[in-house]
Amino acid sequence: MTIKIAHLGPAGTNAEAAAQTYQEWLQRDSEATVELLPCQSIAQSLYALAHDEVDRAVIPVENSIQGSVAISLDLVWELHPLSICQQIILPIHHALISFAQDFSEIKEVRSHPQALAQCQRWLEKHLPHAALREANSTTAVLSNLKDNPHLGAIAAPRAAHLYHLPIMVDAIGDFPQNCTRFWVLGKEIQTAGDVISLAFTLPAKIPGVLVSALEVFARRKINLSRIESRPTKRSLGEYLFFVDIDGCLTNPDVQAALMELQTHTEILKILGNYRTIPLVSLGATPAPVTDSSS
User: Fold this and answer.
1) Is the per-residue pLDDT at 294 higher than 70?
2) Domains of the chain, first to last
């Protein structure tokens, strides 16, 4: 049996590191063959899953510095019933990769917009003269570095090892505790997790309707660990809400809360019931890759 996992590529991205973590977790108790399939965008990863081209997709959904990844949330809502199976909390480390001999030679720095934002203070201090350009991923620009000594890239140190590129400066992130939350998505609904992710829309122009919706959890002492809004894209000022609660879908209190929640919402989607894959049990974060195999 081969399990195919889509993720944002190319090789060396943090999404690939998260997918490798999931791969290792799968293979602890299974002899299944796991194949990682890098995609050019988060959207392509999810569409591959929706179209049955892969069995799982690993996508970033939230960063401890920059907050949520909007495209991920929007597509998980749009492509429901894709379901969250597990989550991975991955420490994020950024390095400046370049063939330049000193900072004055670097005229341009490229990376994924999240990586640029997470290194903003460092870039302003050390490379204020350099133009910042967005790329599809942290590794998309690495193949251009050898031919352009005036170009720098921000990527994980493991990416530099993978592509045999020089790290000019390691640890350039603005916050050392930076981490990103990744979701592993499939198509089957699970009922044995300890986190439940929901999304819903509310009837328009009803005073207190959001409070009424959230009170169904408070009255039953169900912890609400996360809430945020995204525009519905139908009308200005219209939102859908993403909510995480602690619990399991088989719990009677949770079931009662969700039944009552339906009476307050316009559309309610259960996005998944899942657990966090512990990195400690997997030997911490994935080790740097030192060859060019993928």
Assistant:
1) no
2) 1-92+178-188 (3.40.190.10), 95-177 (3.40.190.10), 189-274 (3.30.70.260)
